[in-house]
TrEMBL record:
Keyword Protein biosynthesis included in the entry's annotation: yes
The protein's name: Elongation factor 1 beta
Native organism: Riptortus pedestris
Comp. bias regions, Acidic residues: 103-119
Domain Elongation factor 1 beta central acidic region eukaryote: 110-136
Length: 231
């Protein structure tokens, strides 16, 4: 997109369209390119170009020291009709806007005091920098899980193994998922229940889980951990 002379109303309108879906003229952080474009304005944008005004107030809120520390080269993006940083600026940005004449309705300041504008711009800058910092530092959290194979032994060969498994599976804990099971022969016709489960390490204590299973005293004689693997 081409942005003509920002000293003209047409150039400001073109820039308003350009910056409507962006925070900065290049990339996702403020840079020297923003300063180069800022210095191309002859006066602050008006409410008729809200996106340009939002960007202008934000970039203007940076102090001289902060501007010097911004990354990149002080050069406007391609398509901007702005003098390069090596040439003298044709319209440098004044420290404060000149006060309008009392009898000139066309130049009346519609944007409040400088202090209000600076406070608004500073607030926007802090919010942008905070959002960028949070986005950059945010990393996916890995949930530690373990696969556990339990051996649940009955009292004798007369124990109802189907009912015992049914009772075991009634145990519900946040972070616990029951898996496949099978009956494994022990001796003298006695079989043990071998059942798999997956647990979230921070939420489920294996010792507590074993105790809950052993609470079914009519069916369960003992519980052993046959296998324990981190996922």
């Amino acid at each position: 997109m081409t942005v003509s002379d920002l000293r003209t109303d047409q150039g400001v309108k073109e820039f308003d369209s350009f910056i409507s879906d962006k925070s900065y003229v290049q990339g996702y952080v403020p840079s020297q390119a923003d300063i180069a474009v800022l210095e191309g304005f002859a006066k602050p944008p008006t409410d008729q170009t809200p996106h340009a005004r939002r960007w202008y107030n934000h970039i203007k809120s940076f102090s001289d020291a902060e501007r010097k520390n911004l990354p990149g080269d002080k050069k406007a993006p391609a398509g901007f009709n702005i003098q390069s940083s090596g040439a003298p600026a044709t319209c440098s940005l004044p420290a404060k806007p000149s006060k309008p004449a009392a009898d000139d309705d066309d130049d009346v300041d519609l944007f409040g005091s400088d202090e209000e504008e600076d406070a608004e711009a500073a607030k926007i800058r802090e919010e942008r920098l905070k959002a960028y910092s949070e986005k950059k530092s945010k990393k996916p959290v890995l949930i530690a899980k373990s696969s556990v194979l339990l051996d649940v032994k009955p009292w004798d060969d007369e124990t109802d193994m189907a009912e015992m498994e049914k009772n075991v599976r009634t145990i519900v804990m946040d972070g616990l998922v029951w898996g496949a099971s099978k009956l494994v022969p022990l001796a003298y016709g006695i079989k043990k229940l071998q059942i798999m489960c997956v647990v979230e390490d921070e939420k489920v204590s294996i010792d507590e889980l074993v105790e809950k299973i052993q609470d079914f005293e009519d069916f369960v004689q003992s519980v052993d951990i046959a296998a324990f693997n981190k996922i």
